[in-house]
Amino acid sequence: MQLTRRTVLAGLAITSALVPAGYFGGRKVHAYLEKRDGTPPQARVETADISIQRLSSRLRGIWTVKITGDAEGLYGLPADGLELLLDSAERGRALRGFIDTPENLRAPALPRYKVIGDLVGASPALIRWRLLDRDSARYAPRYEFTVTLDEAQATLDAMGTDVLAGHIQPVDPQTGMTGPKLGFMALKHTFPKAHYRIATSPEFVAWATAPENRLYHQLWHASRDLWHELSETRRNALRGLGWQPGPLGAERHARGRNMDRNGSGVDFFFMHRHMLTIARPLNAPPAWRHFPLPQPAAEQDWAGFARYFENVDGCSVPPTWLTPSDEKFTEGVELIKSPETFHTNFQMWDSRYRDADYLSRVTLGQFGTELELGLHDWLHIRWASIPRDPVNGSPVPAGREPADFSNRWFAPEYDCLVDSFSSHVNPLFWCFHGWIDERLEDWFDAHQRVHPGQIVRRRLLGVDWFEPGPWVEINEPWMGPLTHGCFSQPGVTAIKPLEKDIEIMKLALEIACNTDDELAQALNKAPNRSPYARNLPVRTHVGKA
Ligand SMILES: [Cu+2]
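Above: query sequence and copper (II) ion SMILES. Below: predicted holo structure tokens.
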């Protein structure tokens, strides 16, 4: 038959293909086909929504497994002491991992069972995955898991440890049929804080945790962080105690309008360099060369994944946490801790703040302010663990109230990085403040290269420093009132007795932090949120791409 336009159209009409096409038109055909059973929708890039991302972050890590029932244990593995690694990419919808003995999970050879599952439609009430058997012919499924992430158990446990409970069904590798159910439980390993991994000397701990040094560090930051929000009455009260940030009447706020033009960035660099000159002889942990990399994927490097979640070198990013009273804080912490932010921001800053081209264009004050309010705040948050009551270990997601000076917060265990009362007790503080301090030398070198001699070195209060000039805005960096004694610096009369100095600092903190001023309330909707958490990122892509 000759194919003419008429015969083709007639043929199409008979097979009915033309009827819906003509009837619905282009877009309607598409909708029609999508609705037809059995016709899969076109593939799209889809990212995990926020509930899946939060489920993933609870699943990710190392678990100890217990299997009960007729056949104890998994075929080919010992009955007791098995571990489960669970992993899911940041906005991924797949679940991967392994089950094997703790030794095999840390060895180069592929572990026996691989976890494979997806999180589409998953919730804490229902998570499913299969185990693929390395020793089977085609990496066939050998077990099917149906589990629940036990919310009640996690809430009951003071440490908030997650528990997975449910059942396993063995799959016959020959027939694909399932066998009788076995019971399954898994307990998540708690994340060991840096404090357990990075040794510090008793002298360092004694100095860092001394009440006067905790209060000094908190008040030094609070005064300059909150100054721009305080009423004149409160400012005068702080002036009366000598705790205004800078010279009387010419105070230098660190946040708020024009903070990059008042030289407060110089204060930031100098005070922390001064702290480092005290802490280094006490063997404070050394500076990071680079910011530590995010976790490796379990599927690619299971041993590295296990090392990361055991926090072997103390530098792993601790898990994020939910703060029910402050959703913006929850979201900001999640984003700052994410692997993507490491690549979009932290590694970019690591380059920019060593780049002579950038450094030679900025004054010390501009550089200090940019670094303090950006990278520095985010370093404190990225490497922070959920704040806990140091006496009973229970989580305090929103953190210590800034003017709560109950005894328990003075315990050495309280080293929360998002609270300036405790951050310098944490070993990681010295790793990243050491990194920040070394950028000052890069800044000096950059200026020497481009306009030699314009920055002149000097010693100030026992610290290697710089003369004021075209690139250094401030002659006398602010260290607190002369009467305080600033971290026991020599040559300054400290308030005696020490108890009086401590009480003055507590009073000054109450004035600065316990504010009911309308302006402060309006500017800061979560009044107790740490100043380190003032500039929080927000999620730009919610749920589906
Ligand atoms: Cu500090």
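The radius of gyration is 29 Å.
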